[in-house]
Design goal:
β6 and β7 form a beta hairpin. Helices cover 42% and strands 15% of the residues. It contains 14 helices and 14 strands. α11 runs parallel beside α13, α11 packs antiparallel against α14 and α13 runs antiparallel to α14. The chain is of the alpha/beta class. The chain has a seven-stranded mixed sheet with strand order 2-10-9-8-5-3-4, sandwiched between helices. Strands 11-12-14 form a three-stranded antiparallel sheet.
């Protein structure tokens, strides 16, 4: 039988735009040159060089997660793979799981817990509200729950669960393992894994850390690790088995061929976080996000979520009546070479404020592109007022990190 003929395809030079797009959506984000360079290097996935890299990734990871746990693991996959690793290893078949849901990604954790056999109760949070610690406590008192899942920042609708610390402490007090999705929030705002009694923290490389998509991190507490070691059921996932992953990450042994270039990239991304320090990084993100929000409102646009429940890492913006969010995004991309995000069924646009996105030059370019594109669609805006308010917000030298 003759071989199939090769397909006719374009080279990347013909597909990609001549001028790189500024990535200002909900991720992936722009990456620093040192991270991009690290991602171009290939080394042996076993051996002393890789061992040294892994030890440093774990040490820096403990700082960023704020934990002294010995179980910081890398995952060859997106943040959702780290999420699945946490849930598949910590939810036993038949165990009761409380899934606190206020958007697309929190519901993804509920679905994953259901798929591995958990008996899931969904606590639905009203639209654009934060999860209430008092309500969570009521539900925990009413059932023998073993696991609680929650997002710190719900990327899909830009809600910030600001009562997270109280909720995870409640979970611990009720004997539950607390799993937290911090994919869009880690290193952009405070999260103290040990102090807040969090048992599993999930993050992706391509958001706050300003690394590449496809290599993620998962930190597990001592309590979580004891549960994994004592589990009676056999893990259905070979690649996501934390006990097997531990062979590579802590025992200098083989699990599978690690994505070495991506691990080198996340090493450099973490190093830059440590170099900046978390307090300075939190302040930079807060100043930039609040200044951008002020600029958006001064221009005449409305933010999606009230201030009390608003996530600073990803900003949701209502488009004026009669204006298509997709058309605005298309104009921004084609004309201004700035990419932002739509949403999951909402007529909004979303602008990211994670990692390298939170730089003054990126904010001015993005706000101008947004305002010009909405004006081009026929809606009246005061673009100069928005730019002036952004500049005023960025000029403040100090801010209290909430």
């Amino acid at each position: 039988m003759p071989l199939l003929p090769p397909p006719s395809v374009e080279s990347l030079d013909d597909i990609l735009p001549q001028e790189p797009l500024l990535m200002m959506g909900a991720g992936p984000v722009p990456i620093p040159h040192k991270v991009a360079h690290a991602n171009s290097i290939v080394i042996n996935h076993l051996g002393e060089t890789m061992n040294k890299v892994i030890e440093q990734v774990k040490a820096m990871g403990r700082y960023v997660f704020q934990t002294d746990s010995g179980h910081v693991l890398g995952v060859a996959g997106p943040g959702s793979a780290a999420m699945e690793m946490a849930i598949a290893n910590l939810v036993a078949p038949g165990e009761k799981v409380l899934a606190i849901c206020n958007g697309y990604f929190s519901r993804r954790m509920a679905e994953m817990a259901t798929r591995v056999g958990g008996e899931v109760t969904v606590l639905e949070v009203p639209n654009f509200e934060v999860a209430s610690a008092a309500r969570v406590e009521e539900v925990l008192k009413g059932g023998d729950y073993k696991v609680v899942t929650i997002v710190q920042g719900e990327t899909s609708n830009t809600v910030f669960n600001r009562e997270l610390e109280a909720i995870t402490r409640l979970a611990d007090a009720h004997g539950c393992v607390a799993i937290v999705d911090a994919v869009c929030t880690l290193s952009t705002m405070p999260l103290e894994m040990d102090a807040w009694k969090v048992d599993a923290v999930i993050t992706g490389g391509q958001k706050g850390l300003s690394s590449i998509p496809g290599v993620s991190l998962l930190a597990l507490s001592r309590k979580a690790w004891r549960k994994i070691e004592q589990r009676k059921h056999r893990m259905a996932h070979w690649c996501l088995d934390a006990l097997l992953a531990d062979n590579f990450w802590n025992k200098k042994s083989y699990h599978y061929t690690a994505p070495v270039s991506g691990v080198l990239a996340i090493h450099e991304a973490l190093r830059l976080v440590c170099e900046e320090t978390l307090p300075r990084r939190f302040e930079r993100h807060l100043v930039c996000s609040r200044a951008l929000q002020r600029g958006i409102e001064a221009m005449g646009l409305e933010l999606l979520v009230p201030q009390a429940a608003r996530l600073n890492s990803v900003i949701g913006i209502k488009v004026p009546e009669g204006v298509s969010a997709d058309a605005v995004r298309d104009t921004m991309s084609r004309v201004h070479r700035v990419e932002i995000s739509g949403s999951f069924g909402l007529e909004i646009v979303r602008i990211g404020q994670m990692g390298e996105q939170s730089r003054a030059h990126n904010l001015f370019r993005t706000l101008h592109a947004l305002g010009s594109s909405i004006q081009g669609a026929g809606a009246p805006l005061d673009l100069p007022a928005g730019i002036a308010e952004l500049e005023k917000g960025l000029a403040q030298e100090t801010v209290t990190v909430a």
